[in-house]
Amino acid sequence: MSRHVKISLSIASLGLAAIVVLLLLQLGQDSGKGRNAAESRLSAAIGGAFALTDHHGVRRSQVDFAGRPMLIYFGFTYCPDVCPTALDIMGGALDNLKTRDEAAYEKLQPIFISVDPARDTPPVLRDYLAYFHPRLTGLTGSQADIDAVKRAYKIYAARGAAEDGNGNYNVDHSSFFYLMDGNNRYMAHYDHAVTPELLAEKLAEALATNR
Hints:
Helix content: 25-40%
Shape: globular
Structural class: alpha+beta
Number of helices: 7
CATH topology: Glutaredoxin
Strand content: 15-25%
Largest sheet: 7 strands, mixed
CATH architecture: 3-Layer(aba) Sandwich
CATH superfamily: Glutaredoxin
Radius of gyration: 17 Å
Distance between the termini: 47 Å
CATH class: Alpha Beta
């Protein structure tokens, strides 16, 4: 049995992860007159400095991507269905964006950040990402590295307690695409259930206003 299908993600767990992140994304929002101000404070709170290792074993930070918008997805390579589906959507959206706006496509940096660094070493990430889009950069690191970037980007991820007979376990995590501008500032987020075509449309619109 493929290692990507050894553990089934429970719909309830994924739903809980999504609820937690949605609460974080809406934290501080007020109704009525204070709504816009609250959203501005929230946007400023997402993102920040990071120091991780890419899928080639090279140490990378946000400085390496300065001037380039980033489309970031947090997941893990042992994820049985949600992460591969999300990466397929990301890849399809990138190809669609290329036909819509090639300049935006060339400038945008798609990134996959692991929330399971114990298993997702650079070689594992390299082999995994080979199944998806060639533009993808994978990032991992120590547990401390990953914890820091999770805090910076307001990501929920927690290892499940249950293990199978081979020691495999699940990681419950949020499932959103985060669009950051060339200064690593939050622009937008998109649910993983979005279609590639709609995601490409949203990206084209957002990037057109960020030139």
